[in-house]
Model the fold of this input.
Amino acid sequence: MENRFTSDYVVLAAGAWTPLIIGAGVPAESISPMRGQMIAFERSAVRHVVCGADAYLIPRSDGFTVAGGTMEHVGFDSSTTPAGIASIRERAARLCPTLESASIRLSWAGLRPITPDFLPIIGPDPDRSRVIYACGHSRNGILLAPLTAEAVADIIAGVVPSHDLTRFRPGRQ
Ligand SMILES: Cc1cc2nc3c(=O)[nH]c(=O)nc-3n(C[C@H](O)[C@H](O)[C@H](O)COP(=O)(O)OP(=O)(O)OC[C@H]3O[C@@H](n4cnc5c(N)ncnc54)[C@H](O)[C@@H]3O)c2cc1C
Done:
């Protein structure tokens, strides 16, 4: 059964899947999925976030230590792999040797929506101003979510966004 919805604006915020939406004006090469695997060690190893050249550690209040992450071009496959987990463990242990023998409580993976310049795509479609893009946040989508939401709300309300969105304009690639 087909459902039809009518609205004044459409916000496209489907992460790495945005180019797959029929009618979206985002070419496939503008956003690609990049898998990131993470693990949680059953050990409290650090007191604050530790960033290394190729790994980072995050202490959790429940006593676990989260370590990440891989950067893999494997399409839309969001599964974890033994090789990915082993590589995170090895890099985490280089930052904090006690993690070499720690048990792994949990592992998971997600798909980052990566743009060629690693900047998000935020703003109206150049040809259809009622289609608003909020996608391609690459490695910083959690960090940038509140600002992106504010910018999209401003655009729809007809208010000039408080941040200059020029570098994030759709169609720049
Ligand atoms: C391992 C890992 C670690 C990360 N660490 C950080 C970090 O520390 N800080 C940070 O800022 N960012 C981090 N990121 C990046 C961050 O997760 C992404 O940038 C962010 O999730 C992008 O948000 P989004 O809402 O645009 O896309 P997503 O979170 O991918 O959400 C898109 C949603 O759209 C849905 N969708 C897809 N197609 C359709 C459709 N046709 N109709 C309806 N819904 C659809 C999907 O199911 C999904 O729920 C990390 C990512 C990974 C994988």
In short: The chain has a mean pLDDT of 95. The chain has two domains: 10-31+116-168, 33-114. The first helix runs from residue 82 to 95. Helices lie at 82-95, 141-157.
